[in-house]
Amino acid sequence: MSQSIVRTVLGDVDPAALGHTQPHEHLLSDLSRPLSPRATVGERALDNAPITLDNHYRVRRDHTSEDLRLDSPDVAVAELRRYAEAGGGTVVDATSIGLGRDPAGLAEVSRRSGVHVVMGSGFYYRDYHPADVATRDRDDLAEEIVADLRHGVGGTSIRSGVIGEIGLSHPPHREEEKVLRAACAAQKETGAALMIHPGRDPRSPGQALDLVIGEGVDPSRVIMSHVERTVFSALEMRAIAGTGCYVEFDLFGQESSYYSLAPIDMPNDATRVDYIVDLIEGGFASQVLISQDICHKTNLTRYGGEGYTHILEHVLPLMRRKAINDVQIAQITVANPARALAFPG
Questions:
Q1: Is 314 annotated to bind ligand?
Q2: Which one of 40, 120, 157, 196 is separated from 243 by 20 to 30 angstroms, measured CA to CA?
Q3: 0.85 surpassed by pTM
Q4: Which range is the signal sequence, renumbered to this chain (predicted)?
């Protein structure tokens, strides 16, 4: 029987070597999209403007194209060095194909920062699909994901270590459903974890899990991302966990109720921790993951944001204040992500 490994951009490591792990971040990515033809002159002027103290709040609130591009390995290295100094060991860069994924850049960032980096694979939601996804069949897409995991991305030897984040709208576009089925095939062939970005509707996680389970994927190998912007009650959280998948609270640090992408009232960090307390009380502690999903310049300390250290510096003390003990914290931040990311080498 093969020994379990975690596949990083610098090679395979023992799951026990990961340390504190944030399983849903972005280090190098590009979420920018063309502005609407209806954009005003002022909106167009701001869209690619440098981020300053004068425009910081507006940029962080509504996310300009400049804000949506994480494009500097030097900045990523500086930010991850802070993370390492605070006690961080590993991050998953969940950037999938079509979001500016940069294997060579991630390898450089990992090497220079000393932090393990696990790279994503697969495809995000429809608006970000490369044009050829529409003409390719499920098997062809699955083969690309498997090749990313086993051989390397784009002719490099730098390999992905997780499938995802696989993006869904609500209701899912037929191409998104095809991509998810391809991701399921790749998961069954490789054993790698499958990370799902659900649509922004409370029905989306359940529908995605029904499809995944119907495809024969073990739900214990599935990570359901962004649960706290998708369902809004402890009962719904428990229902997701009851399928056996990992329940990922990955928007820590986003303390504002305002959400620019949908009419959603976002919870704050205290509410996220309350949901986690309920899941622990319900017997689901082994399925909880936490992260920050940093994907904007304004999340970075370089630009006045919280940085990748927010969980280590602020959330863990909050969890302790709300009676989550150190054994449970280690389970959530070390043991659970190590188990989720491990697959046969």
A1: no
A2: 120
A3: yes
A4: none
pLDDT, position 45: 87
The verdict on whether residue 170 carries a ligand-binding annotation is no
Q: Is 116 annotated as belonging to a binding site?
A: no
pLDDT digits (tens, 9 = 90+) for 229-288: 999 999 999 999 999 999 999 999 999 999 988 999 999 999 999 999 999 999 999 999
Residue 128, in any domain of the structure: yes
Question: Where residue 267 sits, what CATH number does that domain have?
Answer: 3.20.20.140
Considering its fold, how many domains does the chain have in total?
Answer: 1
- Let me know if residue 57 belongs to a domain: no
165 is in an annotated binding site: yes
Average confidence (pLDDT) over 286-305:
98
In a domain, 282, yes or no: yes
- Whether residue 49 is contained in a domain is answered as no
Tell me which residue range forms the domain holding 145.
Answer: 18-33+68-344
C-alpha–C-alpha distance, residues 26 and 30, integer Å: 10
